[in-house]
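In keeping with the milestone schedule agreed at the kick-off meeting, the structural modelling team has produced records for the first pair of proteins. Each record is given below as a sequence line and a structure-token line. The laboratory manager (R.T.) confirmed that both were archived under the project's standard naming scheme.
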Amino acid sequence: MTYTEEDNRFLASFCASPRGELGFLSEPFSLGDHTCATDGKQTLFRPGPYPRTLDKKHVTRLMLEHLAVMPTAQQPLKALDTRPVSYRTCPECKGSGDITFSSPLNHYTATCKTCDGDGTIEHRHIISLTENNVTLRFDSTTLYNVLQHDPEATYALSRGYLCFVSARFCGLITREQESDE
């Protein structure tokens, strides 16, 4: 299968930030017979190997479990309440991208870790789905992006993951942790 530049950008959107502690996941890599892109919470697979392999010390059981979980999704993804991502000013750095620390003798400036120096943060939209009488919460931003890339994508719940399948890709989203929000 031949992939377009748009397909490659979509794959890269699932990768981790190169500046974070998961920087080794900042670009796609081969996992078995698939190309994999992940940031640890969402994972995208496409058939065929990728030129980059991941050092074995970074291949986790979770990545292998993600590959094993991939079902054939049956329900249309567009039936879910997915909304586009929106951005708001980072409350930590007030949009500057930098944090300043001062003492009587020193003055320090550092890149804001909340927004990775961008000055904005995503406003996430959460959807709730039920599997085996348990309500699971997922970030719908990824689903919206999948639909933008392939409007015919479908989904299924499997072992606590929200899996999606399109003509060119398959992937999954890890559920959100419960919070008091």
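The second protein of the pair:
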Amino acid sequence: MTNFIAICHGKSEVILAKWITKETRVHIDVDSRNGGNNSVMINSLLEFMKENGYYDSSRLKKRYPNIEYRNRKGFKDLRIFIIMDVDNDERSVYEYLSKEMFKDCPLKDYIIPIINRRDLDDVFRSIGFEIDRNNKPESYRELLNDVDIDYLLELLRGCEATNLDVMIEEVLKHDPGHQSK
């Protein structure tokens, strides 16, 4: 069984990751700073990972005891999606996407960086959805309630502002309802 973890930039990304779980019936452990109420920024990501057990195998094993670990081979079937907004930190994006930022992290091979340029709101606007900036959490919940995951995936595949389609495609591979599609 593949284990999925999503480390989320903020509340909107938490809502999105939980929606993907609901839509696919594939469990994703969703983590963020204070439930997404406080943002994890790219330039503070390594600090968040170290504080929360995502920087070394032994702490990750303690935090997620159900993830199978094979001594010399490491974790079996683990994906750690890190969903970040660029916001105003374009300088760190290359190091993040190339995983150069994680060069000293023993979990580097499990990490799949997901980026939203400038932010998730801009990504959704670019594919034709409106987000109410004054009530973002509710706006995302309503929007996602009314959209099909396959339709959203198709829109995201054509969007140069994100690689969120990579995460959705990977999770859909493990959804029994999508395996025959």
